Amino acid sequence: MSEIKSVISAKNLGLTFQTNDGPVHALKDVSLEIGKGEFVSFIGPSGCGKTTFLRVMADLEHPTSGSVTINGVSPEEARKSRAYGYVFQAAGLYPWRTIGRNISLPLEIMGFSKSEQRQRVERTLELVDLAGFEKKFPWQLSGGMQQRASIARALAFDADILLMDEPFGALDEIVRDHLNEQLLRLWARTEKTIAFVTHSIPEAVYLSTKIVVMSPRPGRIADVIESTLPAERPLDIRDTPEFLEIAHRVREGLRAGHSYD
Amino acid sequence: MRQSILPVLTVVGFLLVLWYAAAIWLNAAWAYDKASRTDEVLTTRTLIADTWSQEKPKLPAPHQVATEIWQTTVEKKITSKRSLIYHSWVTLSATLLGFGLGTVLGTLLAVGIVFNRTMDMSVMPWVIASQTIPILAIAPMIIVVLNAIGISGLLPKAMISMYLSFFPVVVGMVKGLRSPDQMQLDQMRTWHASGSQTFWKLRLPASMPYFFTSLKIAMAASLVGAIVGELPTGAIAGLGARLLAGSYYGQTIQIWSALIMAAVLAATLVGIIGAIQKLTLRRMGMAQ
After folding, report:
1. pLDDT attached to residue A247
2. A106, A140, A158: which is the final residue of a domain?
3. Is A1 a member of any domain?
4. Of A143, A158, A173, at which residue does a domain stop?
5. What are the CA-CA distances from residue A130 to residues A85, A99, A146, A157, B36 (Å)?
């Protein structure tokens, strides 16, 4: 993997929030390389800085030390050149827009032509298996379908990087399994680089080529695990010894970084 | 809609019974007074009949008010100075103009408050302070000042309506324009959306439910403003003028019919806004 050109590169990244109770070290000394086409999961207990790290990549937070580059440029430049699509925990679809018009929202903002918008909406809807739902309003869709629509919205403008912040956290396990499977297929088809925040060990192991285990106070990287699982991953791969072993290592990493005093 | 008719009719019926009873109670003194002067003896039946048909009762009975309204609306030409429709129209035109001005002013102030930190810090206290001044105290001032610079007629009254109606619009729209959550704003940021794009595509549509609720309150306030605006001028036309003239001459029936007319007007206007709200939100897909 190391010979692949790195898309996201963090060096000694630190972020300290000043609060009334003194400084909070959300991130400390975080260094990481993410190569093109990788699927990297960030896992850890709350307060470990996984979401903060993702938000730094997205230029939604500013690091107080160290540096991070996206495609070789600063997060701000990357954001302005629309280098990434960001999927939030909640679908956040606009209730006054149909699914189709929700997906074309970023396209409108970015100034795509009407016909281009139509094409892209149709294509991305197909990509997330929502063809035919273009004219529906968000409330007419289930939670899982809404989240798929929000992924379609993040894909619509063809950014190479997808940043996903616990996108399936609010969904039940069956829907989640289904969406995980779909996400893997989508990743294989589009060859995007994906950074994915989760707090589910099976989800992280099932999806990723690389798992970044983080620990809190201060938020830092405890372990980076390269997955040995094959690219082709049916859902029942989760019962294989190989899968369980990786899951075990993730759990060990989480435990080591977590102080129980 | 259908299931609410019966409860509404029950309440109306109850109020009518109460009203008739109160009319007997309040007007009885005058009936006895009259009777003692002419040495008549009042039976219960004649007492009741008298209390419900006096010319200047303390509280006119519902049918007296209804007759007065019928006579001054249907049986009078609209151009007549005694037509309640004519007076309602005078008040309505000031109400609508004031409501329009108030809505525009309120919306502009809200946009300013949401987008400009200085305005956020400085304007809101003044907006609230403006509403603590009794409108009855400031209305004559507005009319006198505007008269002095040569503005009279519709506009001064509309200004008073505006003074009352911009307030709910400011408060509602500030809340509405701020209703998008941090996640939605972050999302706009990730798309590198400009301030105006965020306003037109997110903040403004998100504020619509708040907007319509504010409009309903503003409309009612606007009508009150127009009526109050007609009082201090000794205005010759408008529902306020009818109220004032009625109180000069003890014409309680005239006062009550003007009051009922104002209530009907307010209910109709607010109902129209409610219908537009329903239609708009349904077309936006926000009402299910």
Report:
1. 92
2. A158
3. no
4. A158
5. 19, 9, 10, 17, 88
Asked whether the beta carbons of A229 and A68 are under 8 A apart, the reply is no
Which pTM was predicted? 0.83
pLDDT block averages, 10 residues each, chain B of length 288: 84 94 91 86 86 89 92 83 88 95 96 91 89 87 87 87 94 95 93 93 94 95 91 77 87 91 93 93 78
Q: Are strands A39-43 and A220-226 parallel, antiparallel or unpaired?
A: unpaired
Contact A80 B192 (CB under 8 A): yes
A211-239 pLDDT, tens per residue? 999 988 888 898 899 988 888 888 889 88
pLDDT above 50 for A3: no
Contact (CB, 8 A) for A63 and A143: no
Residue in A59, A60, A134, A135 to test binding to B, most B beta-carbons within 10 Å: A60
What torsion, rounded to 10 degrees, do the Cα atoms A87, A93, A98, A100 define?
A: -10
Residue B233's pLDDT is 65
Cα separation of A39 and A120, whole Å? 24
Looking only at the bridges linking them, the beta strands covering A6-19 and A161-165 are unpaired
Of A61, A53, A48, A25, the C-alpha closest to A163 is: A53
A176 and A77 inside one domain: yes
Whether A2 shows a pLDDT value over 50: the answer reads no
Neighbour-count burial for B238-260, b at 16+ CB within 10 Å, e otherwise: bbbbbbbbbeeeebbbbbbbbbb
Nearest CA in chain B to A60: B186
ipTM: 0.87
User: Quick one: three-class SS letters along B189-231?
Assistant: HHCCCCHHHHHHHHHHHHHHHHHHHHHHHHHHHHHHHHHHHHC
Of B189, B193, B208, the CB nearest to A60: B189
Q: Which amino acid is at A169?
A: G
Give the class (CATH, top level) of B84-284: mainly alpha
CA B242 to each of CA A64, B219, B220: distance values in angstroms, whole numbers, following the listed order = 71, 21, 19
Any domain includes A47: yes
